[in-house]
Specification:
AbrB_dup, transmembrane helix, 74% helix, mainly alpha, 17 helices
């Protein structure tokens, strides 16, 4: 018999219904980015109330990432790429500042939790969830469960809090929601009429780049591959049409549902303490990112909202979705997020191995929860 479990159609359908209900409810009460946050919260609650009833195939998330990658690729025009090269010193500065800040948070968490500095540091690194977990698995003396839980909690806190900050009086993106809705409807109308004949070309290229990117182990391949492919196609002079809002809403739902099913607090020991520390460190991280965003807006001609989305230590897919929703500078957001992702992927692992090897106290064999 095969060890692979068949996809349970009924469970997938139930998950979809719960996700849609969550999205509709959040839209009804005017929560920002409702089709991302609504499904995420609804499936998180449902999955922790009733175990083993909800299923969401990873293929759905990968499809959504291809859509988000295409949207990001559209923003990477020749002019935008040229502007990104001018931003490289600031990208490096912000990446180093953010990592240093995270190291400080990890030190505080390790003192209060007793989980060990290595585990706390891995839980605080603002990298892609997959890359950090792989790195944690390769590092001796790490509690993988605690790292995964902390990383997922951070990701969810950022997905929830960043839109609320962006749409709040702090940054005040939308002064007139009705006007924004009318503008969105106008974009939708224009979008459906202008999809062909170019969209199929971009769709085939995006899917092909996602598959190739996955084969060559590109980080976040299903998003980064289409983004690169779309950008290259546009540099040849081919115009990529903007997607209608309903398609990006569907992508948000697919990603939000996937993230919502990742977190299972019931499986953790010391649930209250671990959850409290994870939430507290996430809030400190968001506050730090906001402070750096304000600094970036002073140093460079970018809005505070664009700065926050560029520096927020969440997934590039979620930050890209929010940037698209508020008409932030998507090329700047993608550039900063991409730079930090590659910086963490290539520079941080050897640096961490060196630091953790020489850090005083690592000779102790105990103290890692």
């Amino acid at each position: 018999m095969s060890n692979h479990k068949p996809i349970r159609i009924g469970a997938v359908a139930l998950t979809l219904v719960i996700a849609i209900v969550g999205g509709l409810l959040f839209k009804l009460i005017h929560i920002p980015v409702p089709w991302l946050l609504g499904p995420m919260i609804a499936t998180l609650i449902g999955n922790n109330l009733v175990e083993d009833r909800f299923v969401w195939p990873s293929q759905f998330r990968n499809t959504a990432l291809i859509i988000v990658g295409y949207t990001i690729g559209l923003s990477l025009s020749a002019a935008a790429l040229k502007e990104m090269t001018h931003q490289l010193p600031y990208m490096l500065l912000m990446a180093v500042l953010l990592l240093a800040y995270c190291a400080g948070i990890a030190y505080v968490v390790s003192k209060f939790s007793g989980m060990g500095y290595k585990t706390a540091l891995m839980g605080s690194i603002p990298g892609g969830l997959t890359q950090v977990i792989i790195l944690a698995e390769e590092t001796e003396g790490i509690n993988i469960t605690a790292v995964t839980f902390t990383q997922v909690t951070r990701l969810m806190m950022i997905i929830i809090c960043v839109p609320l900050i962006v749409f709040s009086p702090i940054l005040g993106q939308l002064k007139d929601p009705a006007a924004a809705g009318a503008a969105g409807a106008a974009v939708d109308t224009a979008g459906w009429s202008g999809l062909f004949p170019n969209l199929p070309i971009f769709a085939i290229a995006s899917i092909a780049c996602a598959v190739v990117g996955n084969r060559i182990k590109l980080p976040t391949a299903y998003m980064l591959g289409p983004a690169i492919g779309t950008a290259l196609l546009q540099l040849t002079g081919l115009h990529g049409p903007a997607l209608p809002g309903v398609i990006t809403d569907i992508a948000q739902l697919m990603i939000g549902t996937y993230v919502g099913l990742m977190l299972r607090p019931g499986q953790l020991p010391n649930k209250v303490r671990t959850l409290s520390l994870a939430i507290g460190s996430s809030l400190l991280l968001i506050a730090g990112a906001l402070g750096m965003a304000l600094l970036l807006s002073v140093l460079q001609p970018v809005s505070e909202a664009t700065g926050l989305l560029s520096l927020a230590p969440g997934g590039m897919d979620q930050m890209g979705i929010i940037a698209h929703e508020i008409h932030a500078d998507l090329s700047i957001v993608a550039g900063y997020q991409l730079f930090r992702m590659f910086f963490i992927l290539f520079v941080v692992p050897p640096l961490l191995r060196t630091v953790l090897r020489i850090r005083p106290g690592n000779k102790k064999r105990h103290g890692v929860a």
